[in-house]
């Protein structure tokens, strides 16, 4: 079973292309996290929110990453971090073309 981690938080930016340039090294480092399959980066400049949707191999990997990432975000001065972990229903998700394999 795969596990989805949803994280979002309030931040002042950067967003868009500036975000892409500022966080390229962070994005590359996330690929090295234990059990991480993929991440979708999310942002909404109008509401000053950012975050991501992650797919992990195990719940333990998702929990470990959420703890580490929350500590990292806090060190950047970001507060109001919201994180949720969900089990993925692979049978139904596959019907809807989810990239879970």
Automatic annotation (TrEMBL):
GO MF annotation: an example: monooxygenase activity
Pfam families (alphabetical): ydhR
TM stretches of this protein: none
Secretion signal, residue range per the UniProt entry: none
Keywords linked to the UniProt accession: Monooxygenase, Oxidoreductase
Keyword ATP-binding applies: no
Record bears the keyword Oxidoreductase: yes
InterPro entries per record: Dimeric_a/b-barrel, YdhR
NCBIfam families named among the record's database cross-references: PRK11118.1 (NF008333)
Protein's recorded name: Monooxygenase
Organism: Lysinibacillus agricola
Lineage: Bacteria, Bacillati, Bacillota, Bacilli, Bacillales
